[in-house]
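Milestone M4 deliverable, item 7.
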Amino acid sequence: MTTEIHSCPELMDAIQQLGFLPLLDSGIRGYSAEELVDDDCRYVMLPDGGWDWPLWKWKGPVVTDGHCVYGKFFAGKAGFVSRDWWPDLCNYRRSKYPAPQEGSIEEAILLTLQEHGSLITRELRAACGFTGPKMRSRFDSYITRLQMACRIITEDFVYPVDKHNREYGWGWSLLTTPERLLGREACQCERTPQESFDRIFAHFKALLPNATDRQILKLI
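Output delivered:
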C-alpha cells in the first residue's frame, strides 16, 4: 500500500501505483483515498459552520488530468481506476452487465447522454423524463448500474457559484460515456472477460494480502 498522501499530485501518483482506489470506505480497512490522505486533508467542520475537505476538492483535477477514470465502480461506490487497468475492468464488467436491451430505460439514458455529449445528473434526469415525485432515487439507481457496467463515467464536477463568483456546495458529477471521453480503443481489451477478471483478482490479492476473497470479489 502507498504511503500517506499529502497533496493532489500524490493522490494522482497513488492511483497509478494502486490501479484501483475507492474514494471513501471500501469495506477493507485502510483501502480508500479517505484513509490514505494525511489528517489535514480529511473532512473538517469550520467554526463558521462551513467545511473544508481537500480530498473532495482534488477529485476534479484528478479526473480532468486524464490519467484515471472516476465513477461508481466499487459495489456502487465511487472511486478511481487508472487508465492502464480500465480496459480490463471495462471488459469484465460489460460481460457481467450486458448491454441495455432495446427500448429499455437504460438504453434511453445512454442514447440521451450520447446525444448531448455530457450532462450533470439532474439535467440527464430531466432529459429522460424522470421529473415526477420519487423519481430521483429510481433514476439514480439506473445511473449507478450503468456506472458499474462501465458505460457511464464522470468527466468533471460542476459547482454552483455565489454572487461573488465563488464555488460552493458539494458539486455535481458531469456524466459522459467512456467512449466519448477516452476513445473507443480505450474500452477494448484483447483478453477474454475471464482473463481480465483473473488478472484483476490477482492484482487485488497482491495489493491487499490481508483482505478475504469475499471482500475482493465485492470490489470486482
